[in-house]
Fold these 3 entries.
Entry 1:
Amino acid sequence: MANPNENQNQISLELKPEVARGSYSNLAIITHSHSEFIIDFATMLPGLPKAEVGNRIVMTPEHAKRLLAALSDNVQKYEQSFGQIDMGGQQKGTFNLGDFPVGGAKS
């Protein structure tokens, strides 16, 4: 017999082809206000004068915390399957816009 609560945890998603391709990011710039978190995903490549923001995600603090928990859970599962992720001695993998001088983050 099917569990009546089973459908409550399922979400139907549409993944359009242009989104399904994804985009590469090797830099995340995170800032926040009282009511939202903003994550800019950028790509820094050798030979290019500046990083290019490819995607900006805006979310509520509650959803940011849920994302943190989901990423933590998935990194733990990844490391259980494939071994420790080597950070190359880096501890800080993101930058806050407040870390830059005024006018330092240009579009």
Entry 2:
Amino acid sequence: MIRFECDYAEGAHERVLRMMIETNMEQTVGYGKDPYCEKARELVKKLCKVDSADVHFLVGGTQANKTIIASILRPYQGALCASTGHINAHETGAIEATGHKVLALESTDGKITAKQIQDAYDEHWNDGSHEHTVQPGLVYISNPTENGTLYTKQELTEISEVCHKCNLPLFLDGARLGYGIMAKGNDLTVADIARLCDVFYIGGTKVGALFGEAVVITNESLKKDFRYFIKQNGGMLAKGRLLGIQFIALLQDNLYFQISEWANIMAYRIKDALQKKGIRFLYDSMTNQQFPIFEDCQLEKLSQTYSFNFWTKVDATHSAVRICTSWATKEEDVEQLIRDIDRL
């Protein structure tokens, strides 16, 4: 079975493994206080062009989302996000388990707009009995979104302006950040994201690391006691240097972005083959996630050799799936899939 259902099916890039092996028998202090984490923090700050940023390494995306949101919200507040957002659709109520409601905004492409945020804020505060309802306390977005779509610099700027106007911290989930930054048509840089968001993270789990996310906090008011929240929410690794080592390997020599671009290139080849075959798409994605709509008989035939992630039933005879490439996708596997698409 050739797997295209996710971008974390493989282990880690060989440079990550090599550096972990080379440092394996060293002794360091734990919990991210070691020299490797310090070096990784400096690399992240340089990438973000924010020397004053706080950088923390957490073990995974759900832990990062849960910890960040729990650290920001008061007990009576909730998180505004797209109805398709990861925290609303794919985290088993992790946010609600902290006592905070996810306030979902309708979305068809995975994105939300500055106007939606403003309207949700106004709707709450214009309600005469607003203290009886959950107060919007922050805005959560992801880039790329759950549907592979991207925010433009203009869109993110408008969202940032509304968030600051309404005093709503803006949190960007960057689990697939590398794939978004290297996508065709993207006009955002990591420095732009650091400037426009109060907190975000650079995903490692899905982009070449064994595990780990680099959380970047630029808003001074959100920095205090964040490590307490990391520990309480199960995101602090005792052998913390393993996280720092991985991000050093990924961020040196531009490796993180090179392997992200490779995944996108492989996805574009598959997308071109699907388009030539006349197959429609659920979303227009320029990232490593593609969402073709197959006839069920076509999908049944392909599923004998390939594993995709079922997304949604479109009608009685068609289904949408996610085809996801990764930093480690083999070119020969892509070429084989393209040949089989041509034979449909």
Entry 3:
Amino acid sequence: MVAKRIIPCLDVKDGRTVKGVNFVGLRDVGDAVALGAQYAAQGADELVYLDISATIEGRGTFCSLVSRVAENINIPFTVGGGISCSDDAARLLDAGADKISVNSAAIRNPQIIDDIASRYGSQFVVVAIDARQVEGQWRATTHGGTRPSNRELFSWAREAQERGAGEILFTSMDHDGTRGGYPCDTFAALADHLSIPIIASGGAGCVQHIADVLSLGKADAALAASIFHLGEILIPDLKQELNKLNIPVRL
């Protein structure tokens, strides 16, 4: 059985790791490179670095940060934020990123998924979907969850898969930062709808939440931020607890 992955997420603004609720009320929680190295040493399977201000401010993700991360950690990491074309992806991959994540740009121009996948391979492409429930439907948003789109979660995820995405990173904006648990029913339905791995994001507050989304939610990986940044759950302890629950993880 394929091991489930534990992925700390580092939301980055100006080179520092920040955290808030629904991407607002941000507070500094540490140096992005040092924190990533700490998580790698603790046994994280992968890392995700999201430059959360890049799309809003029209900037590209800083390749210098990616280079420093690559020099200091020995596990795969994904970088997203401000990637608007395959050349942006090329610069990040050349700087040392293992995968790139596209979100707002993919909704604006879905061809970017095809372009990056055909140029580098699907294994390098993560399509991030930040969605909220609107009148009973999950609607994708852009620009860090600040702008609604006309894309529905399930149809958009399927299109992204067909265009060459290797993974889907779905964040429930209704749950992000609230630490009240993931919407497991939605994740399970999405898993049944797709054939590529799903990374679950938005809502982790305790070990049971992560266990639930990896089992009941059928997610391939659980991504979390606050519980790791604040030291409330240590990755080795989390993995031991998941192992006791017969959820396959790399110990």
